[in-house]
Amino acid sequence: MFDEEGMDEIRQIFLEESTEGLDVMESGLLALEPGAADMETINDIFRAAHSIKGGGGTFGFLEVSDFTHWVETILDEMRSGERDVTEHGITLLLESVDCLRGMMDTINAKSDYDTPRISALQARIQALLDGSDQPPAAESVDTSEAESSALVSEEPAVETLMEPEQPTDDLLPESAEQEVTADVPPEVKEAKLEPKTEQKEAPTTESKSPKAAPESGGSSIRVNVEKVDSLLNLVGELVITQSMLGRFKKEFNVNDLSDLRDGLAQLESNTRELQESAMQIRMLPIKVAFSRFTRLVRDLSRSLGKKVKLELLGEQTELDKTVLEKIGDPLVHLVRNSLDHGIETVEKRIAAGKSEEGLLRLSAFHEAGHIVIEISDDGAGLNRDRILAKAIDRGLVSEDEQLTDDAIHMLIFNAGFSTADQVSDLSGRGVGMDVVRRNIQDLGGRIDIESELGVGSKFTIRLPLTLAILDGQLVRVGKEIYIVPLLSIVESVFINPERVNVVANNSMLYRLREEFLPITDLRAICGGYHKDMTLNVDELNDKLLVVIETAGKRYGIVVDDLEDQQQVVIKGLENNYKHVHGLAGATILGDGSVALILDIPGLAQRCFSDAVTTDQVASA
Amino acid sequence: MNQVQTEYESELDLSPDVLQFLTFILNGEEYGVDILKVQGIQGWTKVTPIPNTPDFMLGVINLRGAVVPIVDLRKRFQLEEVGYGPTTVVIVVKVRDDDGERVVGLVVDAVSEVYNVNSREIKPSPNFSGSISTEYIRGLSMIENKMVILLEIDSLVNAGVLDLVPNELVS
Questions:
Q1: Which residue range is the domain that position A543 belongs to?
Q2: Interface test with B, best of A475, A532, A577 (most B CBs within 10 A)
Q3: Is position B46 within any domain?
Q4: Cα distance between residue B83 and residue B75, in whole Å
Q5: Using an 8 Å Cβ cutoff, are A594 and A577 in contact?
Q6: ipTM score here?
Q7: What sign results for the dihedral spanned by CA atoms A43, A49, A51, A54?
Q8: Most exposed residue of A9, A165, A225, A478, measured as fewest CB within 10 angstroms of its CB?
């Protein structure tokens, strides 16, 4: 019927729609309270399940439609009031969502279904349907009874993290078949038989982790029609402005000058709005990234035996799709950290005079062209003394060094600063805080910590709204203009040559208030063209020092002058040349010339890695 | 009728055996570049130098919104520097490599002509010590009693220019 390519396309559409449906189901299920049947929520979940079932049937993924049918049956009974909404039911349905996710991955990877897992879950669903939370009805064989009753008594959250049990071969197909004859439409019945045979052929199929993340195949984007309409509106306006300006092409006399000026002003505002509107198309609400935390926090807090309330604020805050995709992992890590190390157990909380339920708050908001994401908890806070002790132990700082609390907190972002004596299965996942910070810096953002022992911690992530545009400070060196990302600049000061100290190896330090900064001349950095330029103290008069901060350390860069601050569109040098160390790319300025954008972390690494660091000087 | 004629003619020109080359002058020698690789010819504009690149990499320019590197072929092949005169131009070529296409500007002394060359008339290049190493030469052709060196522009620009790193990085 379809060629291979057409089939791929259909598969992709089905996967995208189903993944969305599964997200709806999951968030709906998490919102359900046991005992209270919120009809609207149940209806939402039911509808989502129904669409997945329908889609599965239509596109020929009968295993999916078949499995979803069982889920739908439970939901239908809940909807009609025949079945109470129980904790066990919700957990089972959540597991089914996970299982369906697994099936979606299977379809995406075109591999074989995890049949044992599907059948096992199906059997448990059936047990629930047959006996409504009771052990399965009489006709079921002992093993099934043992299995499902064991599960009822088990901690549900732990269960979801466990590998699914291997079902017994002889029982499941049989019981499934009975159900088929009862109420499954004939076309589904046919499909029903498939998993059974597959299971016998390949009973050793490896069980996949139930928490496999849904793969987002392809990179299409769903855009709100309103955004497209507004873009089209703006294009319309642009066309009008263009025709207005176009008439000057035919004839122009001096009296038209003010019209021309108006027209150009309008063109400018059209262009700016059009740019913003086009950017909007790539913007997605952060809800997409936040939504997974409801489930994560629910499961994790149970397995840790903690009570945690999750508060999500500003879910509608929008940010660029690329940024959104890349911020997911660091956020997960920080949330895990807060749950694992931040929020205390119920007993400890009571002992500390806190409410027994911990509060984890994720909030997002826009601030001056950036998006700010805050992860705060009212847990134990960072232990300043222990971090310091560990840093001294590892030789990151020296013992007699005076550090502010903030500086100490930032130490946890150092590579190798794993909280070794607190390793658990949650935090020992190979992503250290240094990786979190690096990921955020790669996105052109920064992370800060506020923490008070015993009161809680707050991690603040600041990210640019988009990766395509950057807030830049234009600096001049000789005749060339370079762009320093505004986010890395702490301050800029006039250089007082008396405060410059030359130390061995021609390194230079600048005493800025009570701090010694390694400094270098941008000319020296751009040495390829100014080989003869060396930093000369006498020449530093009247020059400016741009103080930059990266990886928690501060450095100074000497420039001739500061020019404008402006938003610049980043153009990669890789497109036509290659990556050049120390440069993040280039941009085109208003006069049509090209200016290079400095890659501050890269430069710092290159220019200052061997330089005397602040710490060593202070302790000397 | 007229149009049919034109199409017929151009078909003749572009028959598989006939190749068109744009030729340029560099240090008195004439070199040919497959015209299908040429994007355009650019007058001299201000170049933004890129630090820590070889000296023949003059920098980048803004070519209709794209950031395009500019290479001085004289410097690249260590020819005597003559300074830029009124005929100095930038030939913008689009070359292909494993990763895709790159647009690069080449500074040459002057552009010369467009020639039709029958591929059967291209002689393999003997090993000789010209300005440009023979590995970047596709062959030689005699046109109007002049020898034209036909370049293998893809490998010249990719391997011979862009992928080179500066000999010494200033620390």
A1: 469-619
A2: A577
A3: yes
A4: 11
A5: no
A6: 0.79
A7: negative
A8: A225
Rounded to 5 degrees, φ, ψ at A615 are: -60, -50
Model pTM greater than 0.90?
no
Coil, strand or helix: which one is B62?
A: strand
Distance of CA B80 to the CA centre of its chain: 19
Structural domains in chain A (count): 4
Chain A residue with minimum CA distance to B157: A577
Strands of the A489-494 sheet, one edge to the other: A489-494, A544-550, A553-559, A515-521, A507-512, A500-503
Q: Does B90 contact chain A (CB < 8 Å)?
A: no
Same domain, A88 and A162: yes
Closest-CA residue in chain B for A570? B67
Q: Are A535 and A445 in a shared domain?
A: no
pLDDT tens-digit readout, A130-143: 764 444 333 333 44
For residues A211 and A246, the model is more confident at: A246
Does A158 lie in the same domain as A59? Answer: yes
Q: Is there a domain that residue B165 lies in?
A: no
CA distance A309 to A126: 32
Nearest chain A residue to B54 by CA distance is A528
Give a yes or no: residue B129 inside a domain.
Answer: yes
Q: What is the number of CB-based contacts under 8 A between chain A and chain B?
A: 80
Residue A334 CA to residue A371 CA, distance in Å, equals 17
Q: Which residue matches tokens 């190390």?
A: A341
CB A391, CB A372: distance < 8 Å: no
Q: Which helix (H) or strand (E) covers residue B91, if one does?
A: strand B89-97
Chain A environment of B170 (Cβ under 8 Å): 524, 527-528, 531
In Å, how far is A581's CA from the nearest CA of chain B?
Answer: 8
Is the CB of B65 inside 8 Å of chain A's CB atoms?
A: yes
- For the stretch B20-55, pLDDT in tens is 899 999 888 889 999 988 988 988 778 888 887 888
Please tell me which residue of chain B has the smallest CA distance to A480: B48
